[in-house]
Model the fold of this input.
Amino acid sequence: MRILGIDYGERKVGIALGDTETRIASPWMILDNDGHGELVKQIKLVVENEGVERVVIGIPMDTRDPSKESAQAGAVRTFISDLRSINIPVDEVNEMMSTTEAQHSLYASGSKAEDDAVAAAILLQSYLDKTK
Done:
């Protein structure tokens, strides 16, 4: 089954693709966040064109108090609701530290890749590692 990983940001949205058979997630692309409506349309096209059966989206958690929800987490939940309203199955995962981990990984490798797509791949890989 093909799975799409999303690292949602106010300006840019990182996209990764993965597969439950190979259990490998790879950074794929960056989308500009031009508003929920436009972004939902773009994600729907990707889901249809790439044969994606499930979407995994990272929810930012407050590192000091995980019971508190940030404004960014609220925006992500609204986006998730919009995707579910058009029948796209979405799983939520804790994205804590995925962007930081992506930045460290890119710096260590000397890569010039976009950290948003790498962060999406990191959270999707974590999801694949935890599912059977």
User: Anything to note?
Assistant: The longest helix spans residues 115-130. Residues 23 and 128 are 6 Å apart (CA to CA). Residues 97-113 have pLDDT under 50 and may be disordered. The radius of gyration is 14 Å.
